[in-house]
Task: structure prediction
Amino acid sequence: MPVLVITGTGTEVGKTIVTAAVAATALAAGRSVAVLKPAQTGVGPRERGDADEVARLAGAVTTLELGRYPEPLAPATAARRAGLTPVSPELAAEAAAKLATEHDLVLVEGAGGLLVRFDGEDGTLADTARLLDAPVLVVASAGLGTLNMTELTARELRRRELDLAGVVIGSWPDSPDLAMRCNLADLPAVSGAPLMGAVPAGAGSRSPADFRAGAPSWLDHRLGGRWNAEAFASSQTD
Result:
């Protein structure tokens, strides 16, 4: 898995923190890691972006950002409003492929969901994954509404004949409600893909040392960690 594309079922579901956890786990196993953020929106020229946050939490990763746009909008809209050149799926795929020649693992973190537009030609992260022939990891929320969004994302990946690697819950609370606990079984059922981890709520506010120590316990063996879906579900019962 030299390139892994990471998308979400929407905004604010924990993509960046999951990306950091995957990166930290890979680094702990002695792998070299690069993180590509094709289009960063909602930050100014001197502000920290998502790739910077991954590096802060995970450690010594190579980071690359191809486009930065100040307004917190879809990349195509933000680029148009700023009068800046958008990032195409082809450019993102080319950058990821080059990074893959120099690193053991390249993580490509999207903006928003799978079909958020990159450019004026309706290019999306899904197109980048297709060009790379790379698996896609879906980050989902824990609670009500997540089943519909996750299933729609999974169906679109399969419609495009893309490889859905699995689903990770981006923010798991200390006291999950009934819907959240049920979703541990329902998410893999609706997505047709394994549940591959659950990142604790607030993980991004931990110190880098604590984050790196904890990351392997939040992800299953297919992402280099030691998390187990069955054991985790059993631990969340009333």
